[in-house]
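input
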Amino acid sequence: MNKEEELLRKKSPVSIRNKKASFEYYFVETFTAGIVLTGTEIKSIRMGKASLVDTYCYINNGEIWVKGMNISPYFYGSYNNHEMKRERKLLLTKREIHRLQEATKQVGFTIVPILVFIDAKGRAKMDIALARGKKEFDKRQTLKEKEDRREMDRAMKHY
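output
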């Protein structure tokens, strides 16, 4: 990912994160995928009405899908409104999907959604990561490092 893409993510009006993912997993490799959405789904995402809690990705017949992503119904939608938790297709190249498929065959690896954002052209994109699960002591270590950083920040503010 280059610096221009990083800036676009920071400037994006919508940034829906999976905060629990970085606590539960080590990210080995990240990918940016497009999401196949209906009309009212993109409107809800632009309003920030989506959640990545308890979501995961899986590969079926050479296609990658995200399961458990919650997009709230669009407030102004009528009978056309979408289902909240339907499975949504992600758009990646065949080479990327194949690489993810081979990696997830190994024990302990999974595909986790990290972030949903709107790119410069107004399309919804999702950052996904090939991730390896953390053990219990790794999680405690992560919490300890976070607490240490917080203590250092507090100490620096007093000077």
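quick obs: Helices lie at 3-11, 19-24, 39-46, 94-104, 136-157.
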